[in-house]
Amino acid sequence: MKSEIVEWLGQADLLLPQLVVDGLAANDRVKARLSVLQAAARHARDPQVGFDLTEECRAAGLDPSPLQTLVRSARLSSSGETIAATGLATLGAAIWDDMAAMLRAVRAGDAPSADRCQARLDGLKAAVPLGAADDLAAAQVAKLTAIEADDSLHRLIMDLHRALNALAAAHAQEWVAGARSYGLTDDDKHAVEAFMRGVEATRALKFGHPGLAAMAMRAGTHFTIQDDIGETDAHVVVIGVESDAVTVTYTDVHHARAKFFTGLLRHFSVQWSGLADKTTAKLHEDEAFYLVTGRFAYQGAEARDAFLEALGASLVFLIDWNKARKVLREFVSGGDAIRILDWAASRRFGHRAFLELGGAGLVTSAVRHAAAARIGFGERLEEALGREAAVDFLKAVLRFSAEALLHGNSDRLAKARIEEALVVHLERADTSLLAVVIRQAGLAREIAAAIAQLLASRRGGQSLDSAAIASRARRIEEKADRIALEARSRIAHMGIDHGLARLVDLIEQAIDELEEAAFIATLIPVGAAPDLLDSLLELCDIVIAGTESAVIGTAAAAEIPEGQRIDFEDALAAVMQLIEAEHRGDAAERATTTKVLTGSYDLKTSLSILSVAHPLERATDQLARFGHSLRDHILADVSN
């Protein structure tokens, strides 16, 4: 009654703050009711589609039970043109009531805008008989909820919401930590300050992009914080704060970004609803937005404020997110692009600086200036560098971009750092291939050790499964072949120094020799002379020592690009040991040959002993050649 008198006296301005509060509450309700209408239409078309409107309805102050009953009752007519549901008329009437509440608030502060919106609403009501009966044409449901249509109910709601926000901003009672506020208690202000503390902590990372204006208002038992994030009409977050819980209502036109947003708050126990349901539903093109609701239950203001601060800090990472994702997908997979963006958000670098400095142009320029010979035009980074190296490089690009703009450095410095990072990652690609060589040398050692084990068992008169050892050696040799083939392919594709290919080849040849020795060792007659077996064991020890030196030298060579002198010295020392092993192998093989040919051994024993000694010695030859090639690689690295 008092409000009617005040309005009759022409003092509706006095009612405006509360009308705006009521209008914003009606906005929350009508959006939830539109979600119910959409869910009913989907359920009618496909009863198997799941839905859960509980959190969305509760966040808007609605009882979810009758609304979910309405959805479950929705059926499509035999013609497929009409949707019927119990309570649809009641839902429609409530939607019109909510629209009237929003219009009342707008009319109190901006009568011309309200008149235009009223005319649009009248046209919609005349065209769509929503609220008249428990059935409605499916096409009319789409018309009401479409966001892309010239004029739909959804579009009108968005325009009224924008007008309400403008009125609330113009009639704010006070500023609280940078947020326009009305009717807040002291405790409310502490919560707003926490939220704004988060917003301000990362605000600089939007680098001049519009967005992040916040408004807070109290309505009954809870108050609401709203942030428009960026410029997109449907990109809004509304935060309801109650005595024991914070509800987050988030709308977005990009499903992937909505999912990303929930992930930014993964360290808090938030119960999210709507995201998974919207993912599985087959939405029409006109239904081009997603509404996600989260509920964070808390105990104590400290927990509440920590959540609000984290929430405020996360919003800047949603601005231009989809644009950044599309740019990164030019170089890596979509999943890895999101992984990079998540990393940049967690480290508080973000992606806006990357876009400001040129986005894809930053990367292509670095390739053109620093790696044109290694990375072809149009080639994806993950193909040129390897997946993880490409991801790491792009993380560095986002980091250097943010640091340059935050610290006021020149674009040229950022580009120079990015080019340097690309060179480093290319060197690491070389290093990753040295890791393949180390793995190959380890496989060579496995075969040599297996031969030594077999010979030692024969020497001690013990029984050992010879066939299993030969089979194991063959499997190792086949595995080594596959690894070498893949390494050669990478070397050819990436244009890496072909000296690395020679290292791979030489280790593979040593493995081939050892596999042959393992096979023949299983054929040595039982009871062979111990002194002959001792000679072969000596050769095995030399080969094992050689493979170990190959591992040590290659591992040290991999560290040389980092500039450690001790690694350089260790690598060269290992090379010398490989060369010495070849000399010792020659001497041991000749000693074995002399022993066989000057002794009185049977033919089978003599032939098998020599047939094992020769490939073992040839393995040391290959390892010595490997040592020489490794030395060349080391010296080339140092000179570069």
* Straight-line N-to-C gap: 87 Å
Sheet of most strands: 8 strands, mixed
The pLDDT mean sits at: 84
Number of beta-strand segments: 11
Q: Spans of 5+ residues with little confidence (pLDDT < 50)? A: 1-6, 277-287
Strand order of the largest sheet: 4-5-6-7-8-9-11-10
| Rg, alpha carbons | 37 Å
What characteristic shape results from the CA principal axes? Answer: elongated
Structural class: alpha+beta
Helix content: 55-70%
| Count of alpha and pi helical runs | 24
β-strand amount: 5-15%
Q: What is the structure about, briefly put?
A:
This protein has 24 helices and eleven strands. It has 640 residues and is an alpha+beta fold.
Topology:
Elements: H1 2-8, H2 16-45, H3 54-59, H4 64-73, E1 75-76, E2 82-84, H5 88-109, H6 111-127, E3 135-137, H7 138-145, H8 153-170, E4 174-176, E5 179-182, H9 186-202, E6 214-219, E7 222-227, E8 236-241, E9 245-252, H10 255-264, E10 270-273, H11 275-280, E11 290-297, H12 301-314, H13 321-328, H14 334-346, H15 352-356, H16 360-370, H17 381-385, H18 387-406, H19 411-459, H20 466-494, H21 498-521, H22 530-559, H23 565-598, H24 603-639
Parallel strand pairs: 5-6
Antiparallel strand pairs: 1-2, 2-3, 4-5, 6-7, 7-8, 8-9, 9-11, 10-11
